């Protein structure tokens, strides 16, 4: 594949942390390409290295080794990621603002064309994440799931080309989860590229063109769900995932 067709290209990305227990290698030579317009879901147990991978791509951590290219250009950790929308694992918005004020402020800051920061655009965004009935509620007064919806909306504010979402449906009720999956599918139809981490295998199955499976920092599989099921000769992603983890850790 030509580098221009890639949204993000990650090559042998590694990360060691130095903590009280010494050095831990959280990510081991991760190589993957996220193509323009596709949805990739990254799966892995707690501690597998998903958030580390996301933070490296976003430049919040410096890699111990490896390279990241975005739309054909090499990215250093310090380079701004203006065209990448991001939902962190633990999202916290400014509690003093209302939902509407917060999103409008972000869309303006992101330097998006005026029509993305217009009243209509903000209300449309709120509608898509199911928050249009409470635009004037203060962030401090939102429930956990409502806060997560605002987190998703802020990742989309400013019309980014690529979305990196660390557990986008965490904290949402079943209907909320379904709404967000529909929303992500509609974003894909609009040509957005999405890379997200999740523990919810059914949503990954529904959404993703390709899945990545991380086990103890190493990418053990990258490809379409069907190929993964064939690899393990299983009917469900759940069974395949358990086999992959068991095989890699035994
Ligand atoms: N700042 C840090 N200092 C030391 N070790 C860290 C640090 N951040 C993460 N780690 C370790 O790196 C490993 C990978 O953590 P990471 O948060 O990337 O996992 P994850 O796959 O996102 O897990 P989860 O599903 O629980 O969110 C874990 O062993 C974790 O303890
Ligand atoms: Mg994580």
How are the secondary structure elements laid out?
Elements: E1 6-19, E2 22-35, E3 39-44, H1 50-58, E4 65-70, E5 73-74, E6 84-87, H2 99-109, H3 119-128, H4 144-156, E7 162-166, H5 174-189, E8 193-198, H6 201-207, E9 210-215, E10 218-223, H7 225-232, H8 237-249
Helix pairs in contact: 2-3, 7-8
The protein binds adenosine-5'-triphosphate and magnesium ion.
SSE series:
EEEHEEEHHHEHEHEEHH
Instruction: State the low-pLDDT regions, or none.
Output: none
E-strand count: 10
Please compute the radius of gyration using only Cα atoms.
18 Å
- Summarize the amount of helix as a percent range: 25-40%
Distance from N terminus to C terminus (CA atoms, Å) equals 35 Å
Beta-strand portion reads: 25-35%
List ligands, each type once: adenosine-5'-triphosphate, magnesium ion
Please, how many helices? 8
Major β-sheet profile: 6 strands, mixed
CATH class of the domain at 1-83 and 164-172 and 197-250: Alpha Beta
Gross morphology is globular
Rounded mean pLDDT is 91
């Amino acid at each position: 594949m030509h580098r221009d067709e890639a949204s993000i290209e990650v090559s042998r990305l590694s990360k060691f942390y130095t903590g009280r227990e010494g050095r831990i290698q959280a990510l081991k030579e991760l190589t993957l390409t996220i193509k323009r317009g596709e949805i990739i879901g990254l799966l892995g147990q707690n501690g597998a290295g998903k958030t580390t991978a996301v933070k490296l791509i976003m430049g919040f951590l410096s890699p111990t080794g490896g390279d990241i290219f975005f739309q054909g250009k090499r990215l250093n950790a310090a380079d701004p990621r203006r065209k990448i929308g991001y939902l962190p694992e633990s999202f916290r918005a400014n509690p003093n603002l209302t939902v509407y004020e917060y999103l409008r402020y972000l869309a303006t800051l992101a330097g998006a064309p005026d029509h993305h920061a217009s009243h209509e655009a903000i209300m449309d965004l709120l509608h898509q994440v199911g928050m249009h009935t409470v635009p004037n509620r203060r962030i401090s007064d939102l429930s956990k799931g409502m806060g997560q919806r605002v987190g998703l909306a802020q990742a989309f504010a400013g019309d980014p080309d690529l979305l990196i979402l660390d557990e986008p449906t965490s904290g949402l009720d079943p209907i909320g989860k379904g709404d967000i999956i529909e929303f992500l599918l509609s974003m894909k139809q609009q040509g957005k590229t999405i890379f997200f981490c999740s523990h919810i295998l059914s949503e990954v199955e529904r959404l993703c063109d390709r899945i990545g499976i991380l086990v103890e920092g190493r990418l053990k599989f990258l490809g379409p769900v069907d190929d993964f099921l064939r690899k393990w000769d299983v009917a469900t992603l759940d069974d395949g995932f358990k086999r992959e983890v068991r095989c890699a850790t035994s």
